[in-house]
Amino acid sequence: MAFCSKMALANMGKDAIKIEDDRNLKNSYGDDGLISPDKEDISRILTVPFSGRIRGGMRPGKKIIVMGIINPEPDSFDIILTCDHKEEKDDEELIDVALKLSVRFAERQYLRSARVSGKWSEEEAVISYFPFIPDQPFRIEIHCEHQRFRIFVDGHQLFDFYHKVKSLLAINMIRIVGSLQITKLG
């Protein structure tokens, strides 16, 4: 799967996520923040699979918010934060994955893993409950802290994932694939 080649900055200040579009987008209040395009733009801008650049990389205090709707008959979806993607690299196996969140509906699992220097970490699977419902909206927040990512779903902290990639600023790409529609991203 190729990363997007033409990208423009979603107008969210220095912490923006770049998306495939030529316009600056603001939230419904006209403030910098979550990307909230007009309805006719959603299918074109926030289509799945989605790929975008995290401007300035990650750092403690920064968060990524993904809002969307689960498909009516979902299989799975992934949210992947990667490092230093260069479009000329042909082998995606060389790209470090700081965090891969994998939602599996048949097994009712929310898996976490990372890949550093081509080697995947052990998958973490323990969760207190499975928060996703087919054909329903959701909000995932990925909070970056000094030692870990803290993951919230619909306002409830679900789990922590300790950093495997130590250079947080190098975490500068997000990919979203699978059985969902993205409605807002910031």
Automatic annotation (TrEMBL):
InterPro entries per the UniProt record, alphabetical: ConA-like_dom_sf, Galectin-like, Galectin_CRD
Keyword NAD attributed: no
Pfam families linked: Gal-bind_lectin (PF00337)
Entry-linked CDD domains: GLECT (cd00070)
Gene Ontology MF term list: carbohydrate binding
Domain Galectin intervals: 50-186
Keywords: Lectin
SMART domains: Gal-bind_lectin, GLECT
Function: Does not bind lactose, and may not bind carbohydrates.
Identification of the protein by name: Galectin
Organism: Triplophysa tibetana
